[in-house]
Structure formats: C-alpha cells, structure tokens
C-alpha cells in the first residue's frame, strides 16, 4: 500500500463517498430509483470514517490534554452521528415505501450530536478579553442571532406545516436551525475567543461543514415530490467528510502554539452585512403577508439599533485609541532620548543638546574608576546599582548648574554653562563621586576621572566628546580621582601614542624586543635565588624604552598577548640554556609577568604547557607573576591559575597591597609567592605605617605557607629591617638592576667564586 494512501486514505475515501452520493442525488432528479437502499449505504460508512479519524486524533500523544479532550468529544459526536445516520436510513427505506419521515429516535440522535459538539466548543479555552471586548461581542452575537433568526423564519418557519406533513415532525426543522446556529457559533468562537492549542484550520473546516450541511438540509422542501430522495443523502456525507478532514488536519500538524491574539478590529463588516441581509429579506417579502412583513420590520429596526450602539462604542474606542497612541508616542520619544537604567539623558539627547548650545560652554566626561572590578567581584546587579547611585549624585551636585547625561557603561557627561564656575562644580563632583556607596550590603568605594573641554565655534558633538575623552584618559593616567582640562598637547601626545602603537606591531618581527633580568636574592646574605624577566623595546629612533612607554599601548591594541608569548618563549629558552651550561649555578627560579589579557585567553594554559613539554624545562623553575588587578579583571582568571598550578608551575602575586581585596585573594588564588610592593619598602609612602603593613603581611604569609619577596629594596638598612621582620627573599637596585642575560650570568659566576 503506498505511503500516501496510508497517510491520507481516510480523507480520500470520504471525498469519494461524497462524490458518489452527489452523483446519486443528481441522477435521482432525472429518474426514479428502483432500489433507494443503495443510495443510503455510503452514509454509515462515511460516518464511520469520521469516527476512525477522531479516535486516531484523540489518541495522539503529541497533543495536550485539552486538545485530546476536544477530539474525544468529537468522537462521541461522530458515534452518535453514525447511529443517527443508520436510524435515518431505516426511517427512509425500512417501510413498504420510501419515505422522508424521521422517527423521534433519529431526531434525538441528531440533536445529541449537536449538543455534544456545542459542549466541546464551549469547553475550549479562550483568551482574556476586556469589558469593552465582551460588550462588542454581545452586540455582534445579537446581530448574528437576529439575522439568522430572520433567515430561518423566511426560509423555514413560515412553511412549517408543509415540513411537518413531509417529515412527520418538526424535529428536522429544529435540527436544521441548530445546525445553522452551530456553524455561526463555531466561527464566532474561533474568531473571538480562540481555540486553545487546537488547530485553527481544523475548526474552520468544522464550521464550514456545519454551515454547508445545514444549507443542504434546507433543500428538503424541494424534494417533497421525490420520496426516494432525501437531503440527508448529501448533508450526512458532507458533515462526515468535514469531521474527517478536520481530524486529519489536527493529526498531521500535531500540537501547535496558541496563535497570538489579534487586536480587536475597530471597523467590522458584520453590522453592515447583517443590515444588508435583513433589508434584503424585508424588500423580498412584499406586502402579501402582513405577519412576515411585520417580523422583517422588527428585525430591521432591532438591527439598526444594535448597529448604532455598536458604532457609538467603536467611536469611543477610537478616541481612546488615539489617546493611547499619543501617550505611547510620548513614551517612545522619552525612551529614545533617555537612558533606561538611570533615567538620565542619553547620547542622542546629549548631542541634540550640544548642537543647541552656543560656543564657550564646558563639557566634562566622567568615568568611574575601577568600575569593572566592582562589576566582576560583586556582580552586574551591584554594578547597575553603582551606575544608578552615581547618576543620582551627579544630578544632585549639578542641580540647575549643568546638564547631566549618561553615554553608556560607566561614562557620564556634564554640560556646564560658561556662567558657572566649572572648577568649583568639578571639585564638588569629584568629592561626591569618591564618597563610599552602600549597595546591596556592600560598601563600595569608587572614584571618578574627569576630562573637560571648552566648546568652540563649529564644533560637532563627536569632536567635543573626543577632546573630553582624551582629557579624561589623561586624568586616569595621572592616577584617577581628579579632573583634567584638555589642551592641544594632549592631541599631539595621543598622535604620538598612536604612531608608537602602530610601530609596536613590527617590534616582534623586527627583533626589537629585549629581555632583561633582575636578580632575586636570599636574605640576609644576598645569595642568588632567581631572576625576574623584564621586557624592553629597543626602538630604532627612541632607543631603549621601558615598559611604561609601550605596555599600556599593547594592552589597548591587544598586542599584549603576542608580547607575553615572546617573553615566555625567551624566558624558557634562556632558563634551559643556563641549566645546560651552568648546572647548579643556574637561577633556581625564572619569574615572568602575565597580563590580564593573557589570563583571559582560553589557549594560554595550553601554550604554557606546550612550551614546557617541548623545552623539557622543569615546571617548578617557572614562576608566573600576576597582579591583583589582572586577576580581578579576567572572569576566568581563577580557573586559569588553578590549571597552571596543576602543571607544576609556581604562582606569584605581584605588587601585593596596592590592589583590591588583597587578603581575600590569598584564599581564592593558588598563590605560592607573594611580592610586597615597593611602596611599602622604599616608596614615597614608606615609613612607620608601611613597616607595620610589611610586618603584618609576613605573618599572613607564614600562616598560609607562602613565600614572600620584598620588592624595591635600595639600601642595606631596608634589607636588614625586612629580614628582621621575617622576609627571606628580596629584589631591588641594592642587589642589581635589570641587566642582559650575559651580565646576569657574570654576576652569578662572580657570586659563586666569592662563595667558594
């Protein structure tokens, strides 16, 4: 059996039976059938096909419970319909002569079918509607009832004596009326209330079938002189076929998501169609039948009143819709010009404001320092709260003295009129931004870096913001928590930095990078314990450049990863060379700095592992130094550090004491070595307080089993004080400046000879 027949066999069989019954009916109009029973045989078969189709759909496990329940009800209706069809056939050909009589049992079965279908329809889930929607629905339903009632009166009820004489009861007439109402009710149900997860096209097929079957059933008066024919011979197969097709549609499509509710139509064709139908009936009745004329007049007046009320409601709804559109337009305009998080003006509003301001006013670009650290450590929700709180503070400080806007992220702008003392306002702004925030149970300390520029004639908003941005980065580079005016020298410096950044890309390929080594020694004697690799750039024009001149540029353009890989390769190569040539005199530890970008690189750990594997260097020889800021800046830093630790490398926390949440990092990071920042040893802030910090930190490192290295040791007195505090390793100019590999090797040789 072909696959298409197995899939669509029920529908094809139903179509064939309808065609057969139609041919029988048409032929019966021209001749008298000697064996009318043959014409009734396809009817129970077509009804049985409908039963099979509904049972198959009701058992489909893909459908939800509500949809399967509907098709179970349709199965019951189809079974009753099959029984009614058999009863109808017995009534027609079971006697000595063909008849169009319907027994009470047959009529009861047909009415039970209609009641079951109506019950199934009423149990379908519906959308939630407003009170106005229900009022419109009630008016439209009344129009439908009046119009259909007028049609039934005109086409059926006025000739009810003839129908009763023909069929033996008024039951068929009632069945036809209910069928017509059922078709209309089905359309209304689908069009207004929805059909849950039921296939909408299946409901349309059922509605069309009910309406067509009712219309065909209304042809009975035209067959009064042909008792061997009946309108049921065509109405029953059509009704069965539509049930069959609807069930097949649902079965083929499976479960479906409820359709999105369509907005209520403010202009409906229904009132006008109802009036047109009723007016047509009124005109067609003439004046011969006063009772029918009166009935049609009552229907026309009733419909006119309903239409008037319906249109008044539509006019009121239209006015309400216009008001809603105005409010919505105002809301959209506000959203287009304001930031959704803070409610401040956004970039578009700011640019519009700048274009309307005269030259000479000031524009400040405000950036929150270390916002990313807060966002990463405490979560984005706290970051959003910080942005919102900062926006409120800026607005409160500015008051009516400036126009505050948010550009995005952690950047704000303040437009200051030339009549306002900008210095006083900016000082108050810096102070307010630096005050602690209480956010979600956390005390957050932030600050602001501010760049300020004065507008000139012909300035575009983009150029104004660019200058303010350059000045803001100058303030941030100077340490943050300050404001800085833009001047032309900043542009020249920015151009120079851009050129240097472009030239840096050729440094690796041009063999311009240089690795220097600064010794790390053991206290108190100063015996070599290792070395830290420090990168320099031998610029062809500017000479040897320190890291401060190009590392920030590399971090900005992403080249820091490539530079970091070069340093690691060079460090591993040199360590292997020293191991092979110097043996025990080779440095025991080689330290390499790792940036936040490298920690964020998902391939970084694999790169380090391949270096160690290919070189044969013992993993414990390599020490990777990371700063607190780098660890906090990379979301995957902790995971990366644990993976590196698993390779056997040692992890050092560099510049300890200058970042955020330092002590908590000792708990979270797999740290082997802590490097005390030189600010606590020999910096401008070194003193009694710094000594206290250094002494207390060594207690923590001892308790955690972590080695400590003091950086920036410049005098013997500092070295002695650190050793007395408990430090066993140190690094600084006292023990050696950064030198080449050959120079460090000579230092190691001299030290070894002196020790011997």
Automatic annotation (TrEMBL):
The UniProt keywords, alphabetically, are: Membrane, Transmembrane, Transmembrane helix
Q: Which SMART domains does UniProt cross-reference here?
A: EAL (SM00052), GGDEF (SM00267)
- Matching SUPFAM superfamilies: EAL domain-like, Nucleotide cyclase
Q: Where are the transmembrane segments?
A: 12-34, 40-58, 70-90, 102-122, 134-153, 173-195, 202-222
- Supply the name of the protein: Diguanylate cyclase (GGDEF)-like protein
Q: Which NCBIfam families match?
A: GGDEF
Q: Which Pfam families match?
A: EAL (PF00563), GGDEF (PF00990)
Q: Which CDD domains match?
A: EAL, GGDEF
Entries under PANTHER family matching the protein: BIOFILM ARCHITECTURE MAINTENANCE PROTEIN MBAA, DIGUANYLATE CYCLASE DGCP
Give every GGDEF domain span.
359-488
Q: Respond yes or no to whether keyword Membrane is given for this record.
A: yes
Q: Which organism is it from?
A: Paractinoplanes abujensis
> What Gene3D superfamilies does the record point to?
3.30.70.270, EAL domain (3.20.20.450)
Keyword Protease belongs to the record: no
Q: Which InterPro entries match?
A: Biofilm_reg_signaling, EAL_dom, EAL_sf, GGDEF_dom, Nucleotide_cyclase, Rev_trsase/Diguanyl_cyclase
Domain EAL positions: 497-752
């Amino acid at each position: 059996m072909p696959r298409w027949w197995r899939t669509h066999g029920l529908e094809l069989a139903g179509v064939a039976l309808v065609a057969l019954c139609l041919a029988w009916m048409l032929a019966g109009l021209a001749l008298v059938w000697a064996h009318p029973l043959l014409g009734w045989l396809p009817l129970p078969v077509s009804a049985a096909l409908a039963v099979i189709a509904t049972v198959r759909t009701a058992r489909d496990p893909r459908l939800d419970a509500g949809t399967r329940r509907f098709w179970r009800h349709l199965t019951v209706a189809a079974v009753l319909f099959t029984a009614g069809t058999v009863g109808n056939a017995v009534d027609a050909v079971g006697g000595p002569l063909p008849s169009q009589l319907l027994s009470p049992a047959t009529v009861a079965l047909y009415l039970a079918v209609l009641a079951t279908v109506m019950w199934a329809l009423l149990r379908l889930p519906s959308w939630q509607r407003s009170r106005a929607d229900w009022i419109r629905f009630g008016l439209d339903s009344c129009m439908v009832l009046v119009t259909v009632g007028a049609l039934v009166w005109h086409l059926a009820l006025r000739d009810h004596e003839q129908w009763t004489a023909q069929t033996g009861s008024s039951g068929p007439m009632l069945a036809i009326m209910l069928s017509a109402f059922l078709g209309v009710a089905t359309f209304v149900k689908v069009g207004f209330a929805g059909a849950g997860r039921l296939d909408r096209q299946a409901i349309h097929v059922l509605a069309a079938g009910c309406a067509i079957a009712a219309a065909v059933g209304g042809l009975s008066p035209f067959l009064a002189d042909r008792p061997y024919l009946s309108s049921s011979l065509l109405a029953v197969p059509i009704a069965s076929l539509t049930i069959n097709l609807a069930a097949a549609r649902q079965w083929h499509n499976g479960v479906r998501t409820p359709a999105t509710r369509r907005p209520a139509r403010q202009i409906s064709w229904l009132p006008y169609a109802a009036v047109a139908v009723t007016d047509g009936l009124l005109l067609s009745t003439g004046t011969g039948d006063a009772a029918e004329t009166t009935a049609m007049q009552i229907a026309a007046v009733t419909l006119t009143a309903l239409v008037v009320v319906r249109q008044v409601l539509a006019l009121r709804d239209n006015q309400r819709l216009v008001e809603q559109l105005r409010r919505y337009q105002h809301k959209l305009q506000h959203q287009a010009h304001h930031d959704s998080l803070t409610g401040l003006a956004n970039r578009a509003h700011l640019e519009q404001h700048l274009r309307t301001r005269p030259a000479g006013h000031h524009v400040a670009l405000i950036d929150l320092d270390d916002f990313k650290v807060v966002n990463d450590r405490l979560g984005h929700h706290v970051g959003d709260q910080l942005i919102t709180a900062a926006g409120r503070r800026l607005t409160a400080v500015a008051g009516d003295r400036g126009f505050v806007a948010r550009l995005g992220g952690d950047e704000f702008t303040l437009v200051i009129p030339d009549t306002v003392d900008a210095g006083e306002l900016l000082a108050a702004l810096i102070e307010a931004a630096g005050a602690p925030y209480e956010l979600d149970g956390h005390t957050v300390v932030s600050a602001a870096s501010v760049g300020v520029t004065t507008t000139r004639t012909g300035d575009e908003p983009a150029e104004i913001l660019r200058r303010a941005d350059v000045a803001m980065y100058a303030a941030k580079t100077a340490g943050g928590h300050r404001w800085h005016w833009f001047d032309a020298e900043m542009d020249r410096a920015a151009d120079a930095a851009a050129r240097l950044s472009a030239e840096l890309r050729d440094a690796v390929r041009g063999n311009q990078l240089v690795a220097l080594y600064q010794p790390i020694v053991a206290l108190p004697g100063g015996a070599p314990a290792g070395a830290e690799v420090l990168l320099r750039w031998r610029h062809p024009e500017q000479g040897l450049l320190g890291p401060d001149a190009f590392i920030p540029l590399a971090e900005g353009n992403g080249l820091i990863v490539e530079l970091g890989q070069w340093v690691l390769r060079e460090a591993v190569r040199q360590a292997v060379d020293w191991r092979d040539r110097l043996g025990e005199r080779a440095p025991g530890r080689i330290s390499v700095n790792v940036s936040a970008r490298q920690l964020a690189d998902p391939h970084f750990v694999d790169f380090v592992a391949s270096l160690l594997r290919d070189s044969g260097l013992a993993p414990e020889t390599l020490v990777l130094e990371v700063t607190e800021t780098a660890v906090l800046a990379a979301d995957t830093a902790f995971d990366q550090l644990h993976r590196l630790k698993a390779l056997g490398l040692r992890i050092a926390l560099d510049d300890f004491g200058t970042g955020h949440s330092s002590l908590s990092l000792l708990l979270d990071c797999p740290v082997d070595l802590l490097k005390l920042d030189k600010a606590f040893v020999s910096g401008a802030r070194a003193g009694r307080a710094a000594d206290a910090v250094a002494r207390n930190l060594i207690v923590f490192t001892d308790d955690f089993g972590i080695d400590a290295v003091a950086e920036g040791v410049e005098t013997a007195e500092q070295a002695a004080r650190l050793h007395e505090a408990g430090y066993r390793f140190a690094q600084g100019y006292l023990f050696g400046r950064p030198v080449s590999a050959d120079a460090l090797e000579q230092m190691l040789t001299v030290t070894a000879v002196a020790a011997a």
